[in-house]
Amino acid sequence: MRPQFTVSELLKILKSKNASSVEITKHYLDTIKRLDDKIASFITVCESRALKAASLADDKISQGEFSGLLGIPYAAKDNLCTKGITTTCGSKMLENFIPPYNATVIEKLSGSVLLGKLNMDEFGMGSSTENSYFKTTKNPHNLSCVAGGSSGGAAAAVAAGLVPFALASDTGGSVRQPASFCGCVGVKPTYGRVSRSGLISYASSLDQIGVIANNVSDAALVLKNISGQDAKDSTTVSKDFAFEIKGNIKGMKIGIPQEYFKGEICDEIKEKVIKSVRTLESLGAKVEQCTVANAKKILSAYYIIACAEASSNLARYDGIKYGFRADGEKIEDIYTKTRTDGFGNEAKRRIMLGSYVLSAGFKDEYYKKACNVRNLVTECFDKCFEKYDALITPTTTQTAFKCSENKSSSQMYMLDFCTVSANLAGLPAISIPCGLDVDRMPIGLQIITNRFNEQTMFDLAYALQQELKLNIKPEIIGDV
After folding, report:
1. Cβ–Cβ under 8 Å, residues 120 and 153
2. Could you give the CA distance from residue 123 to residue 350 in angstroms, rounded to a whole number?
3. Sequence-ordered list of residues with C-beta below 8 angstroms from that of 277, at least 6 positions apart, any chain
4. Which of 23-32, 160-169, 238-247 has the lowest mean pLDDT?
5. Would you call 203 helix, strand, or coil by DSSP?
6. Which residue is catalytic, options 41, 127, 174, 227?
7. Fewest CB within 10 A of the end CB: N or C in the chain?
């Protein structure tokens, strides 16, 4: 079998019985064994479970049963609960935690084959996967560079052909940014489109489960299969998602927010994104420059809100009920030592910042003002979508950088400048590759649409993908 297959191709292979799910699963497991020592994308590989699931899928297929993504292998970011399989969140705190239940998205893919759990920045806090307790994931396009974060393991695994698609969470760009760094398609759906039940929370009002895949069609197909209302998550809605690629974008109005093309954005990225916008224009889309008010305040508001919610969500890790527990004679000693030894530096930094902005005397000064900015940003995007069908921005401020580059916290946070808006406003957004930089590292373009308008988002992304016809296969795939 060749190194990379799309989900659609694998479904055709299974339906035509040219290969079994067991054979396909063995192919991916062999690829993981050959390549993942170099990439470090997996924390846990579930070989025996995967082969058993593939065998069950083959039995159903032989009986004429075929629905959804039956028999298709995939992997999940290690903050999605998996029954009987270690779920660590990339942290020492949960190194040995085995959930007694599956996340809803895992249940929705119960006929698919879970190959394992993917590396991530601890509790989703980071932009390079260098904050993982276990390992640093490498970028398949250049093993000396980071894969992005916090879903670096997911993006690297998809880019290198270790899995056809992956599920991951996106709090401020954690799906889209690593997808951009690794040359994949990354989708963050509308808040409420996909159930968050079983996702170990970082910031509950911002978190959303998304998809990383090799192309737009696959990402849409997977999203369709994991979407829907869930009684376990009161924020989910019952809106149907009957995605069908139309391919015709003639007459669509696209806004180009100028604030996302200034300052920190690398010139090469600006050029590739603008060139891609011109391509959409040649296909009949109408393009105009526009403005997103308060854009300079968005990143600060995001980190205040995210850290405040993180300090609350991570308070449960005290060494008493589950997870890592340090020794101590008094309860206060157990709490202190457990949280000191169990959390990494970035998690501690964000917990302390969140606790500070929620503390007496500072809540009004910081947290409430950040919430007001969030409301203003949401209103601004609502006004934009009264006029435009979609907005286009770069996905990241720069391409993948070298591992251990020792960037400051503020430099790392700035990587999320283009992505956090969609999370604050609960909007769907997709990152697709639009070219390579001078070092042949992938560049991503982001499309944002109005809530529950993923159809337009996918139509635009698909039209651009078909027109660009990029081939950004990592050289490492040639080693298979």
Report:
1. yes
2. 11
3. 254, 256, 287, 392
4. 238-247
5. coil
6. 174
7. N
Token digits of residue 200: 């170990």
**SS3 (DSSP) at 201:** coil
Q: What is the largest CA-CA distance in the chain?
A: 71
Residue 165, C-beta contacts closer than 8 angstroms, at least 6 positions apart: 7, 72, 74, 158, 211, 212, 213, 214, 218, 219, 222
Burial of 112 (0-12, 13-18, 19+ CB in 10 A): buried
Residue of 91, 112, 150, 431 marked active site: 150
For the record, the structure tokens of 167 come out as: 């599920």
- Residue 276 known to be catalytic: no
Known catalytic residue at 201:
no
Catalytic option among 20, 21, 77, 127? 77
For residue 410, what pLDDT is reported?
85
- The count of other CB atoms within 10 Å of the CB of residue 429 is 31
Q: Where do the domains of the chain lie, and which CATH numbers do they carry?
A: 7-251+388-479 (3.90.1300.10), 297-359 (no CATH)
**Would residue 77 show up in a list of annotated catalytic residues for this protein?**
yes
Please provide the average confidence, as pLDDT, over all residues in the chain.
95
The CA distance from 180 to 447, in Å, is 12
Q: Residues 417-466: pLDDT tens digits?
A: 999 999 999 999 999 999 999 999 999 999 999 999 999 999 999 999 99
- Beta strand pairing call for 208-213 and 165-170: antiparallel
